């Protein structure tokens, strides 16, 4: 596990401490619950197509990119989502002791979108120390964000499909930012619907002869790969490129220089990328 994964796991599985929900300046994220943390690991998915009630992923976010995943809940428990990352070293803050100026180098943002399109914000500590409680707001100071959604009356997340989005502010420093994602409270046995493959890389682009494709093996295993021209004609197809491997090459040397659409598809994910053939 990455250090960031352990951090997210401890935060999402902790028992509440203090007099109000969420983190606070005195108790942090609460009391570590090692048993629940172990159960989250145990109940995370073990195949690309099936999920338990939890999900643990170690991912990478490219500059100006968005990571998105859709999950289903069955209305029996709250939905909790956490991301954490190891932020690159920044400049020394020479301000006052209680300076509230954000010091993050790479500021990632986590959002959960309910079935009714309402956006649920993460917990964020109040920067005024005369108010020790957290609010649900944009968090621009911590390399960890936790979103928790449950109905005020029911104490659970209503059944339906929720969208989880990870984005970032500004430009990422030092290349793609690795981050860890943990989801707790999904409906057991429901397929995860994803818009992107985990850590997908397609290069070079533009390309002359060869296009390289790689992604996390559990994400892209047995993917079908196709190329289409802009008129919609399929010019390439291969369903065996990712048989027991996480990287492959596509020979485009015989194609006419133009723009093509690269389609990669599995049972759970479908992604399309524009490819320029020189």
Structure notes:
This protein folds into two domains: 3-194, Jelly Rolls (Sandwich); 201-277, Immunoglobulin-like. The two termini are 41 Å apart. 9% of the residues lie in helices and 36% in strands. The chain is mainly β and 278 residues long. Helix 1 packs across helix 2 (34-43). The strands form five sheets. A five-stranded antiparallel beta sheet has the order 5-4-9-2-11, with no helix packed on it. Strands 1-10-3-8 form a four-stranded antiparallel beta sheet, with helices on one face. Strand 4 (108-113) and strand 5 (119-120) form a beta hairpin. The protein has helices at 3-13, 34-43, 217-220, and strands at 54-61, 67-73, 79-84, 108-113, 119-120, 123-125, 134-136, 144-149, 160-168, 177-184, 193-194, 201-203, 210-214, 224-229, 234-238, 247-251, 258-265, 270-277.
In short:
The chain has 278 residues and is mainly beta. It has helices at residues 3-13, 34-43, 217-220, and strands at 54-61, 67-73, 79-84, 108-113, 119-120, 123-125, 134-136, 144-149, 160-168, 177-184, 193-194, 201-203, 210-214, 224-229, 234-238, 247-251, 258-265, 270-277.
- Would you state the CATH class of the largest domain? Mainly Beta
What low-confidence regions span 5 or more consecutive residues with pLDDT below 50? 47-51
What's the CATH architecture of the largest domain? Sandwich
> How large a portion of the residues is in β-strands, by DSSP E?
35-45%
Instruction: Characterize the biggest β-sheet.
Output: 5 strands, antiparallel
Strand order of the largest sheet: 5-4-9-2-11
- Give the helix tally: 3
**Topology as H/E string?**
HHEEEEEEEEEEEEEHEEEEE
């Amino acid at each position: 596990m990455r250090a960031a994964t352990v951090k997210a796991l401890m935060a999402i599985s902790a028992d509440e401490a203090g007099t109000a929900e969420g983190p606070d300046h005195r108790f942090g994220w609460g009391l570590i619950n090692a048993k629940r943390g172990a159960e989250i690991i145990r109940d995370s998915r073990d195949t690309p197509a099936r999920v338990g009630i939890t999900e643990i992923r170690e991912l990478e976010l490219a500059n100006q990119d968005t990571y998105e995943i859709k999950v289903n809940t069955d209305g029996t428990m709250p939905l909790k989502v956490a991301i954490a990352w190891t932020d690159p070293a920044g400049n020394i803050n020479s301000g006052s002791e209680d300076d509230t100026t954000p010091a993050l180098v790479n500021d990632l943002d986590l959002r959960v979108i309910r079935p009714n399109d309402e956006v649920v914000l993460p917990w964020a500590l109040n920067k005024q120390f005369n108010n020790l409680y957290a609010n649900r707001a944009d968090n621009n100071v911590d390399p960890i964000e936790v979103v928790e959604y449950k109905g005020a009356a029911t104490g659970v997340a209503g059944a339906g499909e929720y969208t989880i989005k990870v984005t970032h502010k500004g430009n990422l420093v030092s290349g793609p930012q690795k981050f860890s994602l943990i989801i707790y409270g999904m409906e057991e046995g429901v397929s995860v619907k994803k818009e992107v493959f985990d850590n997908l890389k397609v290069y070079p682009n533009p390309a002359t002869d060869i296009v390289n494709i790689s992604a996390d093996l559990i994400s892209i295993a047995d993917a079908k790969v196709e190329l289409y021209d802009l008129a919609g004609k399929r010019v390439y197809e291969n369903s065996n490129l990712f048989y027991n491997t996480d990287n492959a090459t596509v020979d485009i040397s015989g194609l006419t220089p133009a723009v093509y659409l690269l389609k990669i598809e599995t049972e759970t994910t479908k992604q399309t990328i524009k490819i320029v053939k020189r």
